[in-house]
């Protein structure tokens, strides 16, 4: 039995759902309401002390962290394989996974919050924001402190968008001699990159690859045409389907 604690719009949840779909695995879903901080309640923290989604429970065993979950699924359910057989190629794909998780996936949170999530904090003063939004988070307290209730400032936005642009350029170069980031066949690097690209597209930034990165454009088109994509990105799993998308820049004022 596979049970996935996840959120519809969570990019980390989306990559695991995409991995499950590509492997054709059946699973039981438990939706976690991030807007009401359900992921920070004692019941959820008991299975994931980081207070983030997703969490996979397989026959009573808990697996945390979306990238780790995807690699676990590939090890336990090896058909179809999502990592190359060759150790060197497998290491190359794992290097992609680490880069994608640490750089662009982290960076896309900045425009996501500035453009979609800030209205959640309306009515809070700085002290209430600190107590009710930042201090309660085991893993992302400092992320919330840096953002503040008014959003990331222009420098943070510029830095995030620069990292995202650099990641797309790296992907363009990585696709020079192969159809997928993972090699000749679709694999974990592609599935982990997909939610990042889908989020940028949803926020209105498709020009970042459509204007000058034809390999990335073709790769993303191929990815979205796969049946698993519609399974993972079902209705209401994109921010624009249930939240108003605001402007990118929302200058924060210290204090």
From TrEMBL:
One Pfam family of this chain: GST_C
Top-level taxon of the source organism: Bacteria
GST C-terminal domain mapped to chain residues: 86-248
All residue ranges annotated as the GST N-terminal domain in the record: 1-81
Name of the protein: Glutathione S-transferase family protein
Organism taxonomic ancestry: Bacteria, Pseudomonadati, Pseudomonadota, Alphaproteobacteria, Hyphomicrobiales
């Amino acid at each position: 039995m596979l049970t996935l604690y996840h959120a519809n719009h969570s990019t980390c949840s989306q990559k695991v759902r995409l991995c499950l779909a590509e492997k054709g695995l059946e699973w039981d879903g438990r939706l976690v309401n991030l807007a009401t901080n359900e992921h920070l309640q004692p019941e959820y923290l008991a299975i994931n002390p980081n207070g983030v989604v997703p969490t996979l429970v397989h026959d009573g065993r808990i697996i945390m962290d979306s990238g780790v979950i995807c690699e676990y699924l590939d090890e336990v359910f090896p058909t179809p394989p999502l990592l190359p057989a060759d150790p060197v190629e497998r290491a190359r794909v794992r290097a992609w996974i680490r880069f994608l998780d640490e750089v662009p996936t982290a960076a896309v949170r900045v425009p996501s919050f500035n453009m979609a999530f800030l209205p959640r904090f309306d009515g809070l003063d700085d002290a209430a924001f600190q107590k009710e939004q930042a201090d309660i988070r085991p893993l992302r307290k400092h992320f919330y402190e840096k953002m503040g209730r008014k959003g990331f400032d222009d420098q943070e936005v510029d830095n995030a968008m620069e990292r995202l642009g650099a990641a797309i350029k790296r992907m363009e170069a990585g696709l020079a001699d192969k159809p997928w980031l993972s090699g000749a066949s679709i694999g974990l690097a592609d599935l982990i990159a997909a939610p990042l690209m889908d989020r940028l597209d949803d926020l209105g930034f498709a020009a970042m690859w459509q204007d000058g990165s034809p390999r990335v454009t073709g790769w993303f088109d191929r990815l979205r045409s796969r049946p698993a994509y519609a399974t993972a990105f079902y209705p209401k799993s994109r921010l624009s389907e249930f939240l108003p998308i605001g402007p990118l820049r929302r200058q924060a004022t210290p204090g």
